[in-house]
Amino acid sequence: MNANDTGAAEMRGAFYRDLKPLHLSPLWESLATLVPHTPNGPCVPALWRWDDVRPFIERAGELITAEEAVRRVLILENPALPGQSSVTQSLYAGLQLILPGEVAPAHRHVQSALRFIVHGKGAYTAVDGERTTMHPGDFIITPSWTWHDHGNDGIDGQAEPVVWLDGLDIPMVRFFDAGFEERNAAKSQQVSRREGNALARYGHNLLPVDYRPSSPTSPIFSYPYERSREVLDRLGRDGEVDDWHGVKLRYVNPATGGWPMPTLATFLQLLPRGFSGKPYRSTDGAVYSVVEGRGRVVVDGVSFAFGPKDHFVVPSWKTHVLHADEDAVLFSFSDRPVQVALDILREEKLPG
Ligand code: GTQ
User: Fold this and answer.
1) CA atoms of 231 and 141, how far apart (whole Å)
2) Structure confidence by residue, pLDDT tens digits, 271-329
3) Do residues 202 and 253 lie in contact, with contact meaning Cβ atoms separated by under 8 Å?
4) What range defines the domain where residue 300 resides?
5) What total of structural domains would you count in the chain?
6) 73 CB near ligand 1 (under 6 Å)
7) CA angle 344-347-352, nearest 5°?
8) Is ligand 1 within 6 A of the CB of residue 149?
9) pLDDT tens digits for 58-113?
10) The pLDDT value given to residue 203
């Protein structure tokens, strides 16, 4: 039978209509979309400039308290996914503001969260009874089902508004319909360990002698910028610069060598001044937070100029190159651990 045959086409059309009430659908009409030759997702690259976003974060601070909002966040939505609270199909990103004296009350949820401090210092996040004071560039984790609250008491007698990037696996958990949440009766959780305890125990190439990892999640929840930055500097000076990534390191669970959390990979990279990267693509789309320096990311030929505190997203399988006009430091996160676990991650370092 020939598909161009009008009679046949009409018969097929009638067949599809008859299928509808039975909730049946013909695969052959959608096979190419369902099983694409190469990734064909809807997401587009996008950049949020700090200068554009900052006034709106400030306005949010005037309109609602952290306590009323529970989490006062402006979500970074992929322009191709309006209303879906997603920056890629699998990732959520937002910018959270906490003003001096405020408390974002304690809760816990199945979703894993990361914080990357963008602006200001002296706020804290408390995870499972231990507080961590935030400084720009610090990377902090809130693993699945851990109690956490945020506050801003200031530091050295000074308090200022603090903004950080929230990265969560919200769309993944939604995909699995596996979300649970609980609010704590206490606004701020009881502090049971002194600040820095987890980092002392697990973050210095040593582990308590009887420690056995009981989960894939990192036992340290704060990765201070000062230490990570020093390493990038050192490796940059030693010339260990990859043609595609510059000096790019991944954050680890120091007890296993694995990812800090099972669903989110996090990276920090230095692009030395004048760096002009070769084209790269991978199936894990990534969200970037610019810490230092100015440069450009060119995604599928479209150029996005970035500077400090800007955020951008590079979706899955989009070929992109990175350029730096000054020494630039980029933080990024992706769903790589999940793709690795499923054995579906693909990446390609293309020739220049
Ligand atoms: O800080 O717990 O941006 O639960 C979204 C959901 C932050 C948080 C977000 C959350 C949080």
Assistant:
1) 20
2) 999 999 999 999 999 999 999 999 999 999 999 999 999 999 999 999 999 999 999 99
3) no
4) 46-349
5) 1
6) yes
7) 165
8) no
9) 999 999 999 999 999 999 999 999 999 999 999 999 999 999 999 999 999 999 99
10) 96
Residue 5 has what pLDDT? 80
Answer yes or no: is 315 within a domain.
yes
* pTM of the predicted model as reported, rounded to 2 decimal places: 0.96
Helix H or strand E segment including 217: none
Cβ of 113 less than 6 Å from ligand 1: yes
Read off the pLDDT of each residue in 226-239 and give the average, rounded to a whole number. 97
Instruction: Say if 2 falls within a structural domain.
Output: no
Indicate which CATH number applies to the domain containing 99.
Answer: 2.60.120.10
Q: Whose CA is nearest to atom 6 of ligand 1?
A: 71
Q: Which atom of ligand 1 is nearest to the CA of 115?
A: 1
**Of 74, 144, 166, best ligand 1 pocket probe by most atoms within 8 Å of the beta carbon:** 166
Q: Has residue 257 been placed in a domain? A: yes
Task: Assess whether the C-beta atom of 168 lies below 6 angstroms from ligand 1.
Answer: yes
Of 230, 267, 229, which Cα lies nearest the Cα of 248?
A: 267
In a domain? residue 30: no
CA-nearest residue, atom 11 of ligand 1:
71
The mean predicted confidence, pLDDT, of the chain is: 96
Cβ proximity of 304 and 45 under 8 Å: yes
